[in-house]
Amino acid sequence: MSTPPGPTPDPPSDVRERIGARALATLAASSPRHGALLEMPGLRERVARVALASDFAIETLRRQPALLEHLAQADPGPLPEPVLDPARPPDWPAQLRQYRTAMSTRLVWRDVLGLDDVDATLAGSTRLAEDCLRLALEAVEGEFAERHGVVRDAGGTAQRLVVFGLGKLGGAELNFSSDVDLVYAYPHDGESDGRRALAAEDYFARLGQRLAKLLDEMTADGFCHRVDLRLRPFGNAGRVAWSFAAMDQYFQREGRDWERYAWLKARTVAGDIAAGEAWLETLRPFIYRRYLDYTALDGLRTMKAAIVAEMQRRDMADDLKRGPGGIREIEFLVQSLQLIRGGRESSLRGRQLLPALQALVDAGQVAPEHGLNLARAYCFLRRLENRVQMLRDAQTHALPGSDEDRQRLALALDYAGWDALQQDLAQCRAGVSAEFDALLVPRRGEAAPDALESYWRALPEGGEPQVLADSGFGDAAAADASLRDFARGNGVRALSDAARARLDRVVPALLGAAARSAQPDAALRRLLGLLQAILRRASYLALLDEQPSALARLVDVLARSALLAERIAAYPLLLDELLDTRVAGAMPDAAAMRAACAGAVQAQGDDPEAALRALNEVRLALSFRIALATLDRRQPAEDSARQLATLADAVVLEVLGMADAEVTHAHGAMPGGRFAIVGYGSLGGRELGFGSDLDLVFLYDADPAAMSDGKRPLEPARWYARLAQKIVALLGAVTSAGRLYETDMRLRPDGGKSLLVSSLASYADYQLQRAWTWEHQALVRARQVAGDASLCADFGQVRARTLGQTRDVAVLAGDVGQMRQRMRAELDRSDAARFDLKQGAGGLVDLEFLLQFGVLAGSVDVAALLEPRDTPGLLDALAGCGWLDGEDANALHRAHAVLLEAGLACTLDRRPRLATETEAITVARADIGRVVERHGLGFDPPGVGR
What we know:
Blueprint: H1 12-30, H2 32-37, H3 43-53, H4 55-63, H5 65-71, H6 92-112, H7 118-148, E1 151-152, E2 162-166, H8 167-170, E3 180-186, E4 191-192, H9 200-216, E5 227-228, E6 241-243, H10 244-253, H11 257-263, E7 267-271, H12 273-287, H13 296-313, H14 327-341, H15 353-362, H16 368-392, H17 403-412, H18 418-440, H19 450-458, H20 466-471, H21 476-488, H22 490-493, H23 497-516, H24 520-534, H25 538-546, H26 548-560, H27 562-570, H28 575-579, H29 590-602, H30 608-631, H31 637-667, E8 674-680, H32 681-684, E9 694-701, H33 716-732, E10 743-744, E11 757-759, H34 760-770, H35 773-780, E12 783-787, H36 789-803, H37 809-827, E13 835-836, H38 844-858, H39 871-880, H40 886-908, E14 914-915, H41 919-934
Parallel strand pairs: 3-5, 3-6, 9-10, 9-11
Antiparallel strand pairs: 1-4, 2-3, 2-7, 8-9, 8-12, 13-14
Helix pairs in contact: 1-3, 1-4, 3-17, 4-5, 4-6, 6-7, 7-9, 13-14, 14-15, 14-18, 15-16, 16-18, 19-23, 21-24, 23-24, 23-25, 23-26, 24-26, 24-27, 26-27, 29-30, 29-31, 30-31, 31-33, 34-36, 35-38, 37-38, 38-39, 39-40, 40-41
Organism: Pseudoxanthomonas daejeonensis
EC number: 2.7.7.89, 2.7.7.42
Cofactor: Mg(2+)
């Protein structure tokens, strides 16, 4: 027997007219005042539109006749707050409930009539809840003070309840008819000072319960706000109110991943706001880990699994919050990325979803188009959720079941009917689900080949080495031995079950990636060193497990760069950089590097050890980015060398500030004293390499009779010697992030026999009267790096006078040639198969000596030669004055770029700068040699020809 068809739904126009007419008739019949108001032009139409969306609003208007007159204004503002009379507690529930329903009706009115967007409605719902909490708390606080007095701590300071709002209340994005997630706390233990004294815990627990009842209890006027206290420590089994000290202990010992997620949005919403916000600052390390935190995903997946299980038990296809592609999935996506990255990037720690999503887009963690789509979906779903709740003020997230309610919902949102709304909703939810699944489903990266996975799981006793040979490893026996040693090592055996499960997923994937790399055997050796270093760091195993892109990128980098392999193994925090999308973008400029270094130091306050570690971490991260750009050939080698020098400048500037502060603290300031740091060599020439040391010279200027003004005063020579020693010590100090730089002080006047710091006068005298020609050559690349601006300018004048002296060009050529011959004989490591890129004939030092000779020979007539310190700048200056012809200058530019790139490539792979000659290197050597000979410089030792 067939089922008879159901009733045919009314046409949209009939539904709209019938609902509107019924509402107007109800209001007109409820009071003469309503009947008169409804004669106002346009008001009937507005009321009819509101009636289509909300039975609740019409019922409130019927019960509160004065409300319609207020809403009839063009832009109706908030209503006056009720005054809760301390002498009439029985009246409080009705006052709060009537105020809440009136203000909620105002929110419906403004939303339906287009006066507010969804953000304004969420903010309005939040403000309403906060206002009701404040009014109710102030009332019950007065009641308790009358009965029990005020709680005071051991020092006699009065204590107030602190009310934390979690969830959407904390995020200031409360939906229309939502419960409020509250946690009660108080700053310090103590006792109330009234005749019926209570301990702080009992006092605030009773106060909190009274507050919840005043808001939550159902009366003839309904409820004010539903209160949920289950997010407090230990949930319903825990005490109602907690001291801050007890909360601290709980989160240190018991805090779980879901609580990190819950407290991410926490905000103090009532009571002692200042105390609550200050305590939340102390909770930040619990919520946000210091580095990228992929261990959080397991906890988030557990939460997601519970939601999925609930959806399977109950059909939640129509649930806008918990159903597929619903609001909670967007929240999970955003908040999980906040938890993972927020410890490293403070801009991601916001409480509100849409600003946090935009911050993730700005940080490069969410693609702009995906961020825009998620934001639109969120606004769409939240507006729809609000409208579902506005219909009858019900705490529901499910789409209505009746055809009429669905039709009303669609029409009130300006759709032609339910089918059109449902089509948009389905499209929105599909997009959300796709984004969500890409993040939080168990990783579905490239599966490890079965053979490698089986081989690894059989170790250390089983496993066939032939699997490694078949996969592409050249020395399979050595690789097999290394893997067996690793598998039987204490580090692997000590892993927890969860960490071992991660390792068993990660290692086969790493083996497969290494086998496909350019150097499988080298990649495997370096990978095992890294794995050994991170076995006890669950967050880094989790990172590689969760991020196949990071795993593949890691293997690629390790296969191509022994230097970066060593650095990542020594400092696993650099793994974070592999996931930072900005690593492939534009490199930071000098100002950004200075700001990053300064910010790292300043963030540590008065802790110099922490400041030095933080500065080291910034240097590591930035130099790592430069190295990756060089390795990937995303920028010329000359740019990388210049950036490394710029980074060193920024670090030295911060170290000078730290050292000056320490010496001043110990010995006082030096009145009228000036200090400067001069960079020589590759630092001065802005052509620093990876791992290069810094050639530094320290200068000072002060009245010899002066004394520092501290408790342990020093004369200038000793004061500035202490400062220089402190700078060298800080640059070379070993921290958990390594050391900043090795320093070389041998280029100071008289070399290692002299004092560490020179007065400006003695330095000038030495340069002008006693310095050798090779020291003037070194001065060509010297530049002021940090220190007093006027002393740096004075140094520049000494340098200009020294380099600009009149010289006998023939004698100069002989001096330069003899020094180069001696260096070539002692330092050139070229052999029949390889060329020494730096010291070999036609190498970088030949080019440096050529340019230094040109500056020393020509600067007496051409002052412009004194300005540049870098090789490209010197080439341009010498070509500009005619010392080099244009063709030679262009050839030397190309030669410099070729040799510098080859040298940095050797450094990145931890090889000496000895290269097998390529056609480009041969041409570069020939061009340098030709120009050297053209200028009459004899760089070859006697009897040695090219």
